[in-house]
Design brief:
heterodimer, A: alpha+beta, 5-stranded antiparallel sheet, 1 helix, 26% helix, B: alpha+beta, 3-stranded antiparallel sheet, 46% helix, globular
Chain lengths: 80, 250
């Protein structure tokens, strides 16, 4: 298991993840981040909030950036 | 550990001297560290716990491992709704989510005392009623309130049950409590911090502005607390010391 940190980055705020979460590998961590991003977005949509969160920056215990999950990419729309 | 005082539990502080005498020989002071399992799902519930401090969490689990907190109990109450109501087990699990202490009593001893005293049975079943109201309100807010409101409600309910404005809790635990992913909790805590009502440090939360937190919780907080207050007095551990409120035992 590896501990990954999901730091939330937006245009004018940065929320560091000080706690982290264990995943078997980076692929699993990215899947977790996608689900979490959808959940945060759905809450904002439901309450009519401004969608200001823009991406998760996934880091490891050393603080190395492992992956970026842009929130726009977690939404699925059908073709018009 | 510092031995807990009977008076720290609001139910034990309130019952008559004769009802307390029925229990006293079987009440054992216990230290209750974080994550202590008080009840396992679908397993015989050997003991009930009258908490003196700390917070116990009752968690419902789904068939595929989904879990969400359905209720919490502190020094205002007792665990073991199932044995109090006459069942030996429950599909829920109960564990300590803020460390504390309390009094352990064998479920069979508690049941026997309830059979011997109508007033004790009434007190305990009335408490279970208030706990059911709490669970019902949790269902309501899970369906109708925002994550920010639910988080504020949860923090108020925990704050009611701890002695100090700060307590140890991880975002991972809060995520389980609220049935959301951990980053959703981190995000919501950041919103509350922005309002200046709490400070969130690693594994620790500090309530800075109780009224501000109540405003953030809005309608989602208060109904079970009012029901408890109607029957037993304030849930809030910061309210007047019980020795002042209770005075002489009836």
């Amino acid at each position: 298991m590896t501990r990954y940190f999901f730091n939330l980055r937006s245009r004018d705020k940065y929320i560091p993840d000080n706690e982290g979460e264990d995943y078997v590998n980076l692929v699993a961590a990215k899947e977790g981040a996608v689900i979490a991003a959808r959940e945060i977005l759905s809450e904002l949509v439901k309450n009519g909030g401004l969608i200001d969160a823009s991406k998760f920056e996934i880091t490891d215990a050393d603080g190395t950036l492992c992956a970026t999950i842009p929130f726009r990419e977690v939404l699925r729309f059908s073709a018009e | 550990m510092r031995s807990p005082d009977i008076l720290q539990n609001r139910l034990l502080a309130r019952i008559s001297a004769s009802d307390l005498a029925l229990l006293e020989g079987n009440l054992h002071p216990v230290d209750l560290p974080l994550k202590t399992n008080l009840e396992a799902a679908n397993t015989n519930i050997e003991s009930c716990f009258f908490l003196a401090s700390g917070v116990a969490s009752v968690v419902a689990t789904g068939k595929s491992g989904q879990a969400i907190e359905v209720g919490l109990i502190g020094s205002e109450g007792v665990t073991g709704s199932a044995p109090i109501l006459g069942s030996t087990r429950s599909p829920h699990a109960t564990f300590m989510q803020v460390a504390g202490s309390g009094f352990q009593i064998g479920s069979s001893h508690l049941r026997e005392a309830m059979r011997n005293s109508k007033s004790l049975a009434e007190t305990l079943t009335k408490f279970v009623h208030t706990f059911m109201v709490q669970i019902s309100q949790t269902a309501l807010v899970n369906g109708k309130a925002s994550v920010d409101e639910r988080l504020a409600r949860w923090l108020l309910m925990a704050h009611d049950r701890v002695d100090s404005p700060q307590f140890h809790i991880t975002h991972e635990f809060l995520a389980l409590m609220l049935g959301v992913r951990r980053p959703g909790v981190t995000n919501a805590l950041h919103d509350l911090e922005g309002k200046g009502v709490i400070r969130s440090k690693r594994n620790e939360l500090i309530v800075l502005d109780r009224r501000g937190l109540e405003a953030a919780a809005g309608w989602s907080y208060g109904v079970p607390e009012a029901e408890y207050a109607r029957l037993f007095g304030s849930v809030n551990a910061h309210a007047a010391p019980l020795s002042d409120v209770v005075g002489e035992r009836p």
